[in-house]
Design a protein that fits this description.
about 210 residues; alpha+beta; 3-stranded antiparallel β-sheet; globular
């Protein structure tokens, strides 16, 4: 895979919302994931472990199954909270909405690689337990609650690591993580979930499919 040089005209991708493409390339180069070759642009220097589809609504368990990887999920915390003003701005839920907050650690091939923080509307998603969160929340929503998941708005950026990342992720010398924030809606338009997934840079390959339109 070759990424154009900074001076090369390129398409703007709405799914990739880092502060700027140039800053993102510089961060990835700093972490050693791409290397710049004069006249050839930036090239990926390390292969990721499996594809993470950006434009599809795919559960983590579905991705793991398709990638044939060994993965374990640790539910760090399941709590009931009320959305405050800061949370409303972050999640898209209205002020004082009662939600579940679920923190899960994903261990891939023995390496703590993903930290998922989910907020789920308690009225729409009742009866959530640690056992459900450890297995598959989406399976519970679709098969037990008989709800149809519709669409999501996603934001992808490169974020500096924080203290929570240092504790729950095997970061090594990494100074940044890939952060995916999603507002997820049912087919009828009601938002039921906000998720922030924080990924080790070297574990995931984010993919999308673009169609040319005139």
């Amino acid at each position: 895979m070759v990424i154009p040089e900074k001076s090369t005209p390129t398409t703007t991708f709405t799914h990739f919302l880092a502060p700027s493409m140039i800053e993102t390339l510089e961060l990835l180069q700093e972490e050693g994931f791409i290397e710049t070759v004069q006249g050839m642009g930036s090239q990926v220097s390390r292969q990721a472990h499996f594809d993470f589809p950006v434009s599809q609504l795919t559960s983590y368990q579905e991705i793991v199954k398709a990638s044939v990887l060994h993965s374990e999920t640790n539910v760090i915390r399941l709590e009931k909270i009320s959305i405050d003003e800061k949370g409303a701005k972050k999640t898209g839920f209205p002020l004082h909405r009662l939600v579940w907050k679920v923190t899960r650690q994903r261990v891939v091939d023995g390496v703590s690689s993903v930290l998922d923080i989910d907020y789920l509307d308690r009225e729409l998603i009742p009866g959530l337990t640690k056992e459900i969160a450890q297995h598959s929340i989406y399976q519970y929503i679709e098969e037990d609650l008989k709800l149809q998941i519709g669409y999501a708005k996603k934001e992808i950026l490169i974020s500096p690591i924080d203290n929570r990342d240092k504790i729950l992720l095997d970061l090594g010398k990494d100074k940044h993580v890939v952060t995916v924030r999603s507002q997820v809606h049912l087919a009828d338009g009601r938002q039921f979930q906000f998720t922030e997934s924080r990924h080790k840079l070297d574990k995931f390959h984010f993919v999308d499919y673009a169609e040319r339109r005139k």
